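Summary of Year 1 activities. Much of the first year was spent building the evaluation harness for sequence design. The harness presents a backbone, in tokenized form, and records the residue chosen at every position. We chose the following record to illustrate the format because it has been used consistently in internal testing since the harness was completed.
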């Protein structure tokens, strides 16, 4: 008997090099698995607009939203990134209680929603009980060294109750193969893309996904930028990196904490290098700095308190603006330990 194996083109591939096996004299063989293709996306198709470029979930199919479902206060609280068929990664501060940062939010009041517009996402996740089976959260894993004050180790994993089915609107991003691969890629000037449901003209998020191009910044210059303005630069650790926007034409856009900073790798696959972590929303020329969050609003001179920063840095035409990201490659062993999945074996 001869058996042929195959997977849905474009969304899955066999985890074995054997597509055909022959069974002789009742010999047994192991059936290969179909595993998801990572880092694949559709070409951009929307023009540039103020506040970045309007995009679509089909262009960035690993983009997800963390939606709170507790009554009137429900809605999008953070972005997230799909990395495996049952797993997503987000920022640690997205899954902890505001006044008790060592306590996790109630997983029963969360939905990890993907593959749809924001309006459908929030309305359906909150009001449609049928979606609980699809988007329900099975577990939340916060990094044990997460520090709410400095936002160091600002990373958490979200496990879904039900595995995702991949299609043109739902896919996973690639993780860095190793720290060395990531270090080769995350050099000053490297171009990356940040996505989220930012608000270009108001405090309300956009129904359409938005994308902005940023560049990996010089760490020393980034630290100096904040230090000169009285911020606590101790928050800039080896587990973070800075990105900058030097555009004087794009407007400020609120983004989603926990969302992805992706870089296109050498094989044209998109790799998750950063998680949106912290930043200052308003102009930083005043003594009192306004930092915005969908969960709370604070006034502080400490860059470590965030909650919901911007896709591109604050409104600062004519000068470079910076924002901070969790360096994903620092946590590859942790992700593998918690999910039981391995990362890619090649430097994408």
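For this record, the design step produced the sequence shown next.
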């Amino acid at each position: 008997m001869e058996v042929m194996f195959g997977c849905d083109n474009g969304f899955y591939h066999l985890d074995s090099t054997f597509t055909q096996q022959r069974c002789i004299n009742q010999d047994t063989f192991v059936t290969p698995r179909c595993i998801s293709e990572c880092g694949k996306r559709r070409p951009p198709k929307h023009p540039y607009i103020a506040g970045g470029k309007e995009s679509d979930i089909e262009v960035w199919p690993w983009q997800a939203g963390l939606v709170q479902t507790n009554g009137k206060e429900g809605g999008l609280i953070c972005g997230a990134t799909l990395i495996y068929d049952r797993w997503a990664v987000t920022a640690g501060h997205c899954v902890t209680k505001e006044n008790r940062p060592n306590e996790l939010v109630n997983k029963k009041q969360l939905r990890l929603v993907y593959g749809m517009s924001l309006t459908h996402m929030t309305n359906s996740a909150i009001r449609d009980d049928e979606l609980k089976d699809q988007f329900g959260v099975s577990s939340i894993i916060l990094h044990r060294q997460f520090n709410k004050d400095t936002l160091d180790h600002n990373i958490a994993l979200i496990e879904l109750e039900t595995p995702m089915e991949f299609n043109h609107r739902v896919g996973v991003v690639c993780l860095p193969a190793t720290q060395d691969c990531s270090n080769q890629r995350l050099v000053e000037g490297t171009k990356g893309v940040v996505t989220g449901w930012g608000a270009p003209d108001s405090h309300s998020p956009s129904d359409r996904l938005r994308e902005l191009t940023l560049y990996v910044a010089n760490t020393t210059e980034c630290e100096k930028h904040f230090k000169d303005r009285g911020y606590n630069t101790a928050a800039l650790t080896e587990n973070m990196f800075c990105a900058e926007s030097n555009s004087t034409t794009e407007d400020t856009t609120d983004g989603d904490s926990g969302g992805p900073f992706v870089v296109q790798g050498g094989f044209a696959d998109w790799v998750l290098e950063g998680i949106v972590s912290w930043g200052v929303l308003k102009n930083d020329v005043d003594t009192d700095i306004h930092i915005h969050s969908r969960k709370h609003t604070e006034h502080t001179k400490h860059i470590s308190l965030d909650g919901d920063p911007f896709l591109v840095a604050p409104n600062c035409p004519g000068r470079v603006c910076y924002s901070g990201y969790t360096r994903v490659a620092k946590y590859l062993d942790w992700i593998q330990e918690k999910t039981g999945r391995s990362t890619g074996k090649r430097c994408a």
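The longest strand covers residues 75-84. Quantitative recovery figures across the full test set are reported in Table 2.
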